[in-house]
Amino acid sequence: MAETLGRLVALSADALSAAGFEDPRRQARRLVASALAITPAYLFGHPNQAVDEAQTSRVRAILTRVLDHEPLSRILGQREFWGLPFLLSAETFDPRPETESVVEAVLKRVPDRQVPHRILDLGTGTGCLLLALLSELPSSTGIGIDIAEGAVRTAACNASSLRLSCRAFFIVGDWGRAVSERFDVIVANPPYIASPDLRLLPREVACYDPWRALDGGRQGLAAHGAIAADLPRLLAPDGIFVTEVGAGQVDAVAGMLKASGLVFGGIESDLSGTARCVVVRLG
Fold this sequence. Notes:
By secondary structure, the chain is an alpha/beta fold. It has two domains: 5-68; 78-281, Vaccinia Virus protein VP39 (Rossmann fold), CATH 3.40.50. The chain has helices spanning 5-18, 24-35, 40-45, 53-67, 72-76, 100-108, 128-136, 149-161, 203-206, 222-234, 250-259; strands at 78-81, 84-87, 118-122, 141-146, 168-172, 183-188, 235-244, 263-269, 275-281.
């Protein structure tokens, strides 16, 4: 019997469910749509469309890798963030939806999006934070810094594919020590998992995200401390810094930033309600 789109989704969902994956039906739709380069909406609207043997084999091959806990984004080499496609590489962290709260926190504090701002993205990875902000702030420019050369190359490729190369620049460096100018907006999603907790990470994270993007030191706060030391000289007057933090780290990170002479500017939560971002200003 010839396979159909609907049957491929059902078979994939059954396999994912049996393996203990959460929300297997949704994951199956995303898997099949991605494997066949169609939209989920098309998949939903054409469940009886026949698929050939090559298409079926493609879905099964990807399903096998997903069942081995390889993230679909890594298999495809791409992740959507802020509605934009971002290439991934071995040296880039795979952006998660909760990191979009950093973008939201910045835009919430930018009343006029036409005003030109200088933006700095520390630990840029794929460049997702900087490039998402530049897509919303058409007169702004920015710099992304990462210690990994491969990440910088990937971020530059993403800027090119999003047609933002003329406003986004990427350099290799160690946090804020790589620059000396001042910025209106500084953002970061630094590593914040405590070193003893790294062994508890699920396979999807531990085996595919670069260790350097995960390990935040003994208490998970090492990168935040390194960044905080440079912020007073990097922020322009009234400039803001927005950083992602791990669950339960808000008070510690906010205290660290205030100890550097910065003024507390608020906390923002992600869609799950977890306090995810700390905002400070240069007073």
